[in-house]
Design a protein that fits this description.
Shape: elongated
Number of strands: 3
Strand content: 5-15%
Radius of gyration: 21 Å
Order of helices and strands: EHHEEH
Structural class: mainly alpha
Number of helices: 3
Helix content: 40-55%
């Protein structure tokens, strides 16, 4: 949850400049707005509406990225476990055939 007294407010276009994007000029504004309004992988970038303008904070961006990356590590470990099980199955089949 955003604490406006202690966190640094940012406009969405300022968030765009924090990340290089494919062109090196920053990610698209619609990407940041989508993160705020719809989220990514079940997590939303915290934001608040003040006088018709949407804001977020540097700290909220950090929390958002942390949540996204925590999930990625978990999936990677699960994928690695699945791959290990598959390799064991294949090795067992090869051993049964005499290889």
């Amino acid at each position: 949850m955003i604490d406006v007294e202690t966190e640094t407010l940012m406009l969405p276009r300022e968030v765009c400049r924090m990340f290089p994007g494919r062109s090196g000029k920053g990610i698209a504004l619609c990407t940041v707005m989508r993160w705020m309004l719809k989220g990514r992988k079940g997590h939303k970038l915290e934001s608040l509406l003040v006088g018709g303008q949407r804001y977020t904070t540097r700290e909220a961006v950090g929390r958002f990225l942390s949540k996204l990356n925590r999930g990625a590590k978990h999936r990677t470990r699960r994928q690695r476990d699945n791959r290990d099980r598959e390799m064991q199955r294949v090795e067992h089949e090869l051993a049964a055939e005499g290889f």
